[in-house]
Each structure stands twice: as C-alpha cells, then as structure tokens.
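In response to the reviewer comment on reproducibility (Comment 2.3), we provide here a single inverse folding case reported in full, input and output, so that an independent group could reproduce the run without further information from us. The structure tokens appear first.
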C-alpha cells in the first residue's frame, strides 16, 4: 500500500495575521509620529484588510499541519500584541504614577490599539473556524453518522 503525501502550500502556512500585527507595531515604533498620525487609516486599511482576506482563504483547509500552525501563529500573535499592550500600559503607569525621568516607554496611539484589536479578532475568528473544521473531520470519522 502506497500513500501519497503532498507538500502544503506556503501560502496556507504563512502567518498573514501575525505579519500584519508585527508590521503595525514596527511602523508605529519606527516611523515619524507626525506622518503616521496623518496616514494611519490608510496604513491600517492596507494591513488589516489583506490579512483578513488572506487568513480567510485558509478556512476550508483542515490538514493537521495547517491547523497546528494556525494555533501556533495565533498564540504568537496574542503574545506579540499582549507584550505591546503591556509595554504601553507600563509606560502609562511610569508616566502618570511614578514620574520617573528619562524612562523610555512605548506609546501606542488609539488607532494602533484599534488596529491590533481588529487583527486579534481576526485571529479568534480563525481559531473558531479551525475548531469547526476539526469537528467536521471527526464527524466524518464517526461510524454512527
């Protein structure tokens, strides 16, 4: 008995949502804040909508490798966004309550927090779609069905 294995497409295993989160944070940290304040809506539009569309293409695929990588990349997305939120909250705390001079902190504007929230919601939707695919796989294996 010969089994055939096919290589999973790179498109399906590439972390589009994680890439968008990293790009939003990198653009926030490294670009001029005046320029970014004027163009944040376009940058968010260019990064969020393609991430949502490209992640949505993965919904129908339920191989174990793709599902495992979806979970890993979603967890990494939450880790990166959580570290950014935590760092920003630490900066607010240092600025408002400790009044330490010379402390360098990350400041996340409201539109970056909104963009990160939307990207994390996309990741949650992908996890639920993956759970639905797993349920479908198990229902096909159920002899009573």
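Designed residues, in position order:
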């Amino acid at each position: 008995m010969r089994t055939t294995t096919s290589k999973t497409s790179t498109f399906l295993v590439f972390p589009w949502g994680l890439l968008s989160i990293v790009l939003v944070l990198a653009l926030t940290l490294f670009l001029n804040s005046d320029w970014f304040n004027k163009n944040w809506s376009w940058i968010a539009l260019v990064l969020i909508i393609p991430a949502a569309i490209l992640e949505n293409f993965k919904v129908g695929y339920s191989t174990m490798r793709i599902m495992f990588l979806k979970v890993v990349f979603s967890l990494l997305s939450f880790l990166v966004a959580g570290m950014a939120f935590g760092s920003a909250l630490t900066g607010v705390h240092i600025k408002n309550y400790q009044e330490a001079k010379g402390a360098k902190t990350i400041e996340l504007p409201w539109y970056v927090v909104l963009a990160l929230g939307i990207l994390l919601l996309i990741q949650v939707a992908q996890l639920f779609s993956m759970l639905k695919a797993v349920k479908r796989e198990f229902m096909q294996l159920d002899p009573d069905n």
